[in-house]
Design brief:
This protein is mostly helical. It has one domain. The longest helix is centred in the first third of the chain and has 31 residues.
Length: about 130
């Protein structure tokens, strides 16, 4: 019998780790671009961040069954959207698209990105 509490904790840990990694890569990429004027490093980090969102969908899939049905569907849909957007950005080679993957169109500085918003919703109320 699966341990749903452990799997749920594993899912949250996975999402936290990915959100932290994505944030670190973005900060490092912006530093590379603006401080060191290294556009190649910026591109490499944005590509790595996009690839991590594709991997996240696959890694999270077996853990989603631990969530209540409504949260499971919403989470699966969000992870799929992140991964699909990342695939498209990589296929296009668009660094701009890669940089915008986790942000709403009306995003303002200081607001959480869509991955952090998803995570916060699951941490506060998985329903």
């Amino acid at each position: 019998m699966p341990d749903t509490q452990a799997d749920s904790a594993s899912l949250l840990a996975l999402l936290r780790e990915c959100a932290a990694d994505a944030g670190r890569m973005e900060r490092d990429a912006l530093d590379a671009l603006h401080t060191r004027k290294d556009s190649a490093r910026y591109r490499a980090l944005m590509e790595e961040r996009a690839k991590s969102l594709i991997v996240l969908e696959a890694q999270a899939a077996p853990l989603l069954g631990t969530l209540p049905e409504a949260a499971r569907g919403k989470t699966r849909s969000a992870l799929r959207a992140f991964a699909d957007g990342a695939r498209t950005a990589l296929d296009l080679g668009s660094v701009f698209y890669m940089s915008a993957l986790l942000y709403r169109d009306d995003h303002r500085a200081g607001e959480p990105d869509k991955l952090r918003t998803l995570l916060a919703g699951l941490e506060n109320d998985p329903q």
